TrEMBL record:
Lineage: Eukaryota, Metazoa, Chordata, Craniata, Vertebrata
Membrane topology qualifier: Multi-pass membrane protein
GO molecular function: magnesium ion transmembrane transporter activity
Similarity comment: Belongs to the NIPA family.
Name this protein carries in UniProt: NIPA like domain containing 2
Regions that span the bilayer: 38-58, 79-100, 106-125, 132-151, 171-189, 196-222, 234-252, 264-287, 293-316
Organism: Falco tinnunculus (Common kestrel)
Subcellular location: Membrane
Domain of life of the source: Eukaryota
InterPro entries referenced in this protein's UniProt entry, alphabetically: Mg_trans_NIPA
An annotated GO cellular component: membrane
Record carries keyword Transmembrane: yes
Keyword terms of this UniProt record: Membrane, Transmembrane, Transmembrane helix
Main location: membrane
Length: 366
């Protein structure tokens, strides 16, 4: 009991059914202390699930349009617009959640979109995979630990407080280190043409750390303004909006490059782990979310993050890979090519997209 302070031990004991002064769970000290955070957790989880549903609806709209004899633009489909509407609602809800809960609590809940995709696939494909059950169990257990041992940040986030955080020495040192790391990765990406998945997703994670800082600030300042204390007249509010827009744009660029070069089953778990880690670090350094947390609480929180990572990896890495039904193309009209020859290698080989230049005439032409 020496690891936890007396006050925190009491609230922790109450949350697990220990004695309390109230008459029910809603009147317990733990609930009254974490009420705002619980709203943020529920909003973040619901928003991420809504995002997974919206993406599935949009995918269904694209497949329907592709099967038509006269394909039409996707933006003419009512089903696609339905998915886009749900996507916007989900993103707005996820944005709003940062105004109620710490970054360290909202960011790991991105796994809900992965769980949602697995749940939707079970509904439509009528098949249940053992990997989905195992991954879902690990992720839900991790979430329970995240919510229970998350840092409690009761102070109101005002514009002046954000300004003080921006010029604090820990954040300035963190920013310099992040800029140097990003420039090194960008040098290898641009000059050396190194497009390894780790390089791409590390740049995404570094940009994401700035994004979540800006999103948290903007959402919190809007929340405080709605409560009656106007914060939108401070320049720092618009600086954070600009930072959020720029970092999101470049983040989407590198993430799109990663999904173009690598399988989604590899991009999703690695990006989730990198993004969550960078978001938690940025929350710890900028907003000082674990400043007064006990050692046991920090350990259990990190253990919950690890379980969530494992759950996402198990679900994403065990999905069946999609193969092209026709891995060869008809190049019968290309001079020098034999109709009976293998002219298109397998789609997953390093030679995909090249011609088989075994014929002497083709070699002479090249």
């Amino acid at each position: 009991m020496g690891i936890l302070p007396v006050s925190e031990w009491a609230s922790w004991n109450t949350s697990f059914g220990g004695p309390s002064n109230g008459s029910g769970p809603l009147s317990s000290p733990w609930y009254s202390t974490h009420k705002t955070q619980l709203w943020g957790v529920l909003l973040a989880a619901a928003s991420n699930f809504l995002i997974s549903v919206s993406l599935s609806i949009q995918k269904c709209a694209h497949l329907r349009l592709a099967c038509q004899t006269e394909p039409k633009p996707y933006y003419t489909s009512k089903l696609w617009w339905c998915g886009m509407t749900l996507l916007v609602l989900g993103e707005v809800g996820s944005f709003t959640a940062y105004g109620f809960a710490p970054i360290a609590l909202v960011a790991p809940l991105g796994y809900v979109s992965v769980i949602g995709s697995a749940f939707i696939s079970v509904l439509f494909l009528k098949t249940v995979r053992a990997a989905d059950i195992l991954g879902g169990t690990l992720a839900v257990t991790g979430t329970y630990l995240l919510v229970t041992f998350a840092p409690n940040v009761p102070q109101e986030l005002t514009a002046r407080r954000v300004q003080n955080y921006l010029v604090s020495w820990p954040f300035l040192a963190y920013s310099i280190l992040e800029i140097i790391t990003f420039c090194i990765l960008l040098y290898f990406y641009k000059r050396k043409a190194v497009k390894h998945i780790v390089v791409l997703l590390m740049m995404v994670a570094l940009l994401a750390s700035l994004t979540v800082i800006a999103v948290k600030a903007v959402a919190s300042l809007i929340t405080v303004s709605v409560k009656g204390k106007m914060q939108l007249t401070y320049p720092v509010f618009y600086i954070m909006i600009l930072l959020m827009a720029i970092s999101c744009a470049f983040q989407a660029k590198f993430l799109n490059q990663a999904t173009h070069l690598y399988e989604v089953t590899a991009v999703v778990p690695i990006n989730f782990a990198f993004f969550t880690t960078s978001a938690i670090i940025s929350g710890v350094i900028f907003y000082r979310e674990f400043q007064s947390a006990a050692l046991l609480s920090v350990f259990m929180f990190l253990f919950g993050c690890l379980l969530s990572f494992l759950g996402v990896f198990v679900i994403a890495r065990n999905k069946k890979k999609e193969h092209l039904q026709i891995p060869f193309i008809d190049c019968g009209h290309i001079p020098g090519q034999k109709l009976t020859g293998k002219i298109q290698p397998d789609s997953h080989s390093s030679c995909y997209g090249t011609l088989n230049n075994e014929d002497a005439s083709v070699k002479s032409q090249s």
